[in-house]
Amino acid sequence: MVDSVPLLDGNDYHEIFNLDDPDDWSKLGISLPNRSKRADKYVHYINCPYAIIEQKSSTIKKAISQLEETAKNFMSNGKNVDYLVIVADKIRKSERSLFRNERNILFDPRKKEPYRIRVNSKEFEVRIYYREQIKRERSRKKITDFIR
Amino acid sequence: MGIYIKLNFRRGFMGYRSKVIKRISMGYWCVRFFSEVFFNPETTEVWLNSPIVSLGGKIKEKFDVNKRNLFNVFEDIKIKIQKEYPLEDVLSSVILVNGVWKFDDLELDGFFSINNALEWREVYHDLEADAYGKGEVRDLVDALQLYLTYEDLENLISRFNQYVARESRRMEVDITSIYFTVGVPPTDEVDNILAAHLKSRRDLVKLFYNTLKAHPSDPIISRKIRPLRDRFFINTLIGEEIVQKKFGEALELAKIKEIQGSSLTYIARKVGSFKKMYEKFAEEVFRPAVEPLETDEDIQRRMLKGLEKIKSLE
Asked: Can you give the residue range of the structural domain that contains B81?
């Protein structure tokens, strides 16, 4: 599970909530619609920010849709949302005409600008991390933490 | 994993609106097929540009639907496409049928998407069906694999393909391909296919060849195929009896079933089998066919040598 939670700007998570698990909704004190169109995780990072993470979607399009829906639900429940994050194996070639990973920000290659999800009055850029990158960064962090 | 259908509108004059109407009709038949057992439609939405707000989408109309009024809602949309909507809206539209996929105790939100907008159609093909995952189930075909036996899944895929092919003939539309894949349909990779409905073996060989070009196992192979014309290479291979034999052997090794009809349906037991088939075919057909060829550098050198001769005559 940890392997698919990215470090955000070098910071690790403090707490992970599994959004498929109603027990975790209770811990969060929220109720979500009983639908499967939602992201996978709500993560509290050690330096405070909260992220919604989608890590199982087989297309980027579906991942965005799930993040958008979940962010709306969380914000209407009064929960903090600071980052929207997609974790994927890669962006497949056919989808690369619509989506590009530019230094972990999801870009629109046609407009050459980041995609932005607007929920209420807040606007989010979407972060994207590949599983291999997460694994690499986590193992590097482990070494650095050990040395220091 | 989703289902992706690519259509080909027969030659001859057909206006833009007529093509869109035929695409919508094909979409209707797909929804109807799955709504017999698995899918409960809830809403139908007409979007412009894309079906998601963050991706520049704008909703134009929304209808509540159920199994009973689905036909009428689709007829309404077709009339609007024919008579009311500006052509610009027609050509940038994406029609979504949202609903719930039901497999015993598992319920997944899902959708059918009729992609009239060109940018979306190029990626997600003309018609698309999928589900949003839950727990260990990532998407629609994951759920189908989990809740159906292999034999039932094979029958379902085969029945669906025949059904779509029959409706397409009635609508005078050709089916270019139907893919059951994890993620978007493939252009140059085969690791995400569970089943494919294609016109001929040639189409699968072509996909294998695109895969070889994009991910060559050996850089020399890549330099040898670079100067070749795709069509020439594939046509030369496909006519050979030994290639057909090796194709059959690769199918057997990967345990992929080939169902012959007016088109061909390939069904694997698991995702990953097409990769196994590709590797066998690439090793036993592409490699021996390509090895005797010269590399792009060899050809370039010969060309320059030829030009040197002209220079010496000057």
From this structure: 2-181
| Domain final position from B131, B146, B181 | B181
Dihedral angle over CA of B214, B278, B154, B185, nearest 10: 0
**What's the complex ipTM?**
0.87
Binary contact (A118, B54; C-beta < 8 A): yes
For B65, other C-beta atoms within 10 Å of its C-beta total: 23
Listed residue (A80, B240, B28) closest to B248, CA to CA: B240
Q: Which residues of B touch A61 (CB under 8 A)?
A: 52, 55, 124
**CA angle centred on A143, ends A139 and A144, rounded to 5°:** 115
Q: What is the DSSP string of B128-139?
A: EEEE--BTTB-S
- Is the residue at B85 inside a domain? yes
Helix, coil or strand: residue B310: helix
Nearest to A68 among B53, B108, B138 (CB): B53
The reply to whether residue A98 touches residue B119, judged by beta carbons under 8 angstroms, is: yes
3-class state of residue A36 by DSSP:
coil
Does B167 have pLDDT greater than 80?
A: yes
Which residue would you say has higher pLDDT here, B67 or B179?
B179
Residue of B nearest to A18 (CA): B135
The reply to whether B83 and B121 lie within a common domain is yes
Q: Whole-angstrom Cα distance, residue B118 to residue B185?
A: 16
B183 and A36 in contact by Cβ < 8 A?
no
Q: Read off the DSSP letter of residue B67.
A: T
Entry pTM: 0.90
Number of domains in chain B: 2
Helix or strand (DSSP H, E) at B196: strand B193-198
Which residues neighbour B23 within 8 Å (Cβ) at sequence distance 6 or greater?
A: B7, B114, B116, B126, B127, B173
